[in-house]
Amino acid sequence: MYFSAKNLTGGYGGIDIIHSCSFEVNRGEIVSILGPNGAGKSTAMKAMLGMLELSSGEVTIEGKDISKLTTQKRVKLGVSFVPQTKNVFTEMTVQENLEMGGFLRDDTYRETIDEIYDLFPILHEKKNQIVVELSGGQRQQVAIGRALMIKPSVLMLDEPTAGVSPIVMDELFEHILKIKEKNVAILMVEQNARQALNISDRGYVLVMGENKYSGSGKELLNDPEVRKSFLGG
């Protein structure tokens, strides 16, 4: 597997929230992490990015152990993250937000900005607009676009469709599918479980900080226990 986390255990202030959690994603794949509120989904994602201390477990990219690396060094290796909240600079323009996403790069990123505008045409239309004036769905496109500025091989999304309408959710999922086509490994925490599994190659369901179910998107959609507990029957 291109990007993997094995037996992650950790949390905050000495209290473990995730317990021996494991996840894997290949390039050109979408993998969803699902589960009820408080299951440890976002904590697991932060652990993979190096944002909290692990008491055990390892994270690898292309077989290289990156468990001891700082978050910034993981980003330099191509791991990008879009948090659920505070994921844009609201008082900056769309263009300035994208430029901020490229500040770790040593080369020119003009071409990358053009690629992001191709992916999100509305952002090109509004490139000089202050982000605070955009709709929720458009802001989320800015956040994802900014994460793509480092040309990541791994893109981690924490609740990308939180708080948007069903129509906007469908649009965002269509954009995520287009990013997958660029051979990016996408790991996504998502509350809209059914819709997420419909576009996912594979998924994991966390319960109380532990892996409870895993399988292909189709297998989890058809699993009676998963349907009853997480998909509304």
How far apart are the termini? Answer: 32 Å
CATH topology: Rossmann fold
Proportion of residues in β-strands = 25-35%
Percent helix: 25-40%
Low-confidence residue ranges = none
Global shape:
globular
CATH top level assignment? Alpha Beta
Instruction: Please give the CATH architecture.
Output: 3-Layer(aba) Sandwich
- Quickly give the structural class: alpha/beta
Count of runs of 4 or more consecutive helical residues: 10
Number of domains: 1
Sequence of strands across the biggest β-sheet: 6-7-8-3-9-10
Oligomer: single chain
Biggest β-sheet strands, sense, barrel: 6 strands, mixed
Rounded Rg: 17 Å
CATH superfamily: P-loop containing nucleotide triphosphate hydrolases
Q: What series of H and E elements makes up the topology?
A: EEEHEEHEHHHHEHEHEEHH
Mean pLDDT rating:
94
Characterization of the model:
By secondary structure, the protein is of the alpha/beta class. It has helices spanning 41-49, 71-76, 94-101, 110-119, 121-125, 136-147, 166-180, 193-199, 217-222, 224-230, and strands at residues 3-12, 15-25, 30-34, 54-61, 64-65, 79-82, 154-158, 185-189, 202-207, 210-216. It has a single domain, classed as Rossmann fold, CATH 3.40.50.300. It is built from ten helices and ten strands. A six-stranded mixed β-sheet has the order 6-7-8-3-9-10, with helices on both faces. It has a four-stranded antiparallel β-sheet with strand order 2-1-4-5, covered by helices on one side. The longest helix has 15 residues, at 166-180. It starts with a strand and ends with a helix. The model has no long low-confidence stretch (mean pLDDT 94).
